[in-house]
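Table 4 source record.
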Amino acid sequence: MIMLHEMKISKNFIELFQNQRYEQYVFHLMKKSQIVFPGEYGIVEAQSHGECDFIEKTTGEKYDAKLPFLPEQIELLTTGKKHSPQIKQWIKEMQEEASDFDILDIRENRYDITKTKLFLIMKNAILKDKPDENIIFFFRRL
Protein backbone atom coordinates (compact mmCIF):
# COMPACT_ATOMS: atom_id res chain seq x y z
CA MET A 1 0.00 0.00 0.00
CA ILE A 2 1.25 3.47 -0.86
CA MET A 3 0.44 6.37 1.46
CA LEU A 4 0.98 10.00 0.76
CA HIS A 5 1.38 12.46 3.62
CA GLU A 6 1.32 16.18 3.09
CA MET A 7 2.18 18.66 5.82
CA LYS A 8 2.23 22.40 5.96
CA ILE A 9 3.89 23.93 8.97
CA SER A 10 2.91 27.35 10.23
CA LYS A 11 5.69 29.81 10.95
CA ASN A 12 4.52 30.06 14.57
CA PHE A 13 4.20 26.29 15.03
CA ILE A 14 7.30 26.02 17.24
CA GLU A 15 6.09 28.84 19.49
CA LEU A 16 3.02 26.77 20.35
CA PHE A 17 5.14 24.19 22.18
CA GLN A 18 7.47 26.57 23.96
CA ASN A 19 6.58 27.76 27.46
CA GLN A 20 3.27 25.84 27.52
CA ARG A 21 1.63 28.17 24.96
CA TYR A 22 -0.61 25.35 23.78
CA GLU A 23 -2.48 25.71 27.11
CA GLN A 24 -3.51 29.25 26.12
CA TYR A 25 -4.69 27.93 22.77
CA VAL A 26 -6.73 25.16 24.45
CA PHE A 27 -8.24 27.73 26.84
CA HIS A 28 -9.27 29.90 23.89
CA LEU A 29 -10.96 26.88 22.24
CA MET A 30 -12.74 26.00 25.49
CA LYS A 31 -14.20 29.50 25.74
CA LYS A 32 -15.39 29.34 22.12
CA SER A 33 -17.10 25.95 22.47
CA GLN A 34 -20.25 26.33 24.54
CA ILE A 35 -21.43 22.88 23.46
CA VAL A 36 -18.41 20.85 24.63
CA PHE A 37 -17.40 23.25 27.43
CA PRO A 38 -20.62 25.00 28.53
CA GLY A 39 -19.27 26.42 31.80
CA GLU A 40 -17.05 29.33 32.72
CA TYR A 41 -13.40 28.39 33.05
CA GLY A 42 -10.31 29.95 34.52
CA ILE A 43 -6.61 29.25 34.06
CA VAL A 44 -4.79 27.92 37.10
CA GLU A 45 -1.76 30.21 37.27
CA ALA A 46 0.24 28.45 40.02
CA GLN A 47 1.12 24.96 38.82
CA SER A 48 4.33 24.25 40.69
CA HIS A 49 3.01 21.03 42.26
CA GLY A 50 1.32 19.41 39.27
CA GLU A 51 -1.94 21.31 39.55
CA CYS A 52 -4.44 21.19 36.70
CA ASP A 53 -4.40 23.77 33.89
CA PHE A 54 -8.02 24.92 34.06
CA ILE A 55 -10.88 24.91 36.53
CA GLU A 56 -14.59 25.34 35.97
CA LYS A 57 -15.49 28.33 38.15
CA THR A 58 -18.92 27.12 39.33
CA THR A 59 -18.41 23.39 39.84
CA GLY A 60 -14.68 23.33 40.60
CA GLU A 61 -14.14 20.60 37.99
CA LYS A 62 -10.49 20.33 37.01
CA TYR A 63 -9.14 20.07 33.47
CA ASP A 64 -5.61 19.35 32.33
CA ALA A 65 -4.34 19.90 28.78
CA LYS A 66 -2.01 17.19 27.48
CA LEU A 67 0.05 16.87 24.35
CA PRO A 68 -0.10 13.36 22.84
CA PHE A 69 3.68 13.26 22.38
CA LEU A 70 6.59 11.68 24.16
CA PRO A 71 8.87 14.14 26.00
CA GLU A 72 11.64 13.52 23.48
CA GLN A 73 9.24 14.36 20.63
CA ILE A 74 8.41 17.69 22.25
CA GLU A 75 12.12 18.38 22.79
CA LEU A 76 12.58 18.14 19.02
CA LEU A 77 10.28 21.15 18.66
CA THR A 78 11.95 23.38 21.21
CA THR A 79 15.20 25.25 21.41
CA GLY A 80 17.35 23.60 24.00
CA LYS A 81 20.90 23.76 25.23
CA LYS A 82 21.95 21.13 22.71
CA HIS A 83 19.97 22.06 19.60
CA SER A 84 17.57 24.34 17.81
CA PRO A 85 14.15 22.94 16.77
CA GLN A 86 14.52 19.81 14.65
CA ILE A 87 11.34 19.93 12.62
CA LYS A 88 12.41 17.42 9.96
CA GLN A 89 13.18 14.78 12.59
CA TRP A 90 9.87 15.49 14.35
CA ILE A 91 7.94 15.14 11.07
CA LYS A 92 9.73 11.86 10.36
CA GLU A 93 8.70 10.52 13.77
CA MET A 94 5.10 11.65 13.26
CA GLN A 95 4.98 9.91 9.88
CA GLU A 96 6.32 6.71 11.43
CA GLU A 97 3.70 6.97 14.17
CA ALA A 98 0.95 7.54 11.59
CA SER A 99 2.03 4.39 9.75
CA ASP A 100 1.04 2.40 12.86
CA PHE A 101 -2.54 2.72 11.63
CA ASP A 102 -3.17 0.02 9.02
CA ILE A 103 -6.24 1.18 7.11
CA LEU A 104 -6.99 -2.26 5.63
CA ASP A 105 -6.89 -3.95 9.03
CA ILE A 106 -9.09 -1.22 10.49
CA ARG A 107 -11.70 -1.75 7.76
CA GLU A 108 -11.71 -5.51 8.34
CA ASN A 109 -11.87 -5.18 12.16
CA ARG A 110 -8.55 -6.98 12.59
CA TYR A 111 -6.88 -3.98 14.14
CA ASP A 112 -5.70 -3.68 17.73
CA ILE A 113 -5.36 0.04 18.43
CA THR A 114 -3.89 -0.72 21.87
CA LYS A 115 -0.64 -1.69 20.17
CA THR A 116 -0.10 1.71 18.55
CA LYS A 117 2.39 4.25 19.84
CA LEU A 118 -0.26 6.99 20.04
CA PHE A 119 -2.55 4.83 22.18
CA LEU A 120 0.30 4.01 24.57
CA ILE A 121 1.32 7.68 24.83
CA MET A 122 -2.25 8.69 25.66
CA LYS A 123 -2.78 5.79 28.09
CA ASN A 124 0.41 6.67 30.00
CA ALA A 125 -0.64 10.33 30.20
CA ILE A 126 -4.03 9.33 31.62
CA LEU A 127 -2.49 6.99 34.18
CA LYS A 128 -0.05 9.68 35.35
CA ASP A 129 -2.75 12.28 35.93
CA LYS A 130 -4.87 12.68 39.04
CA PRO A 131 -8.22 10.84 39.14
CA ASP A 132 -10.19 14.05 39.75
CA GLU A 133 -8.92 15.76 36.60
CA ASN A 134 -10.52 15.69 33.17
CA ILE A 135 -7.90 15.39 30.44
CA ILE A 136 -8.01 17.40 27.24
CA PHE A 137 -5.67 15.99 24.59
CA PHE A 138 -4.49 18.76 22.34
CA PHE A 139 -4.21 17.77 18.68
CA ARG A 140 -3.37 20.60 16.34
CA ARG A 141 -4.10 20.31 12.66
CA LEU A 142 -1.07 21.68 10.91
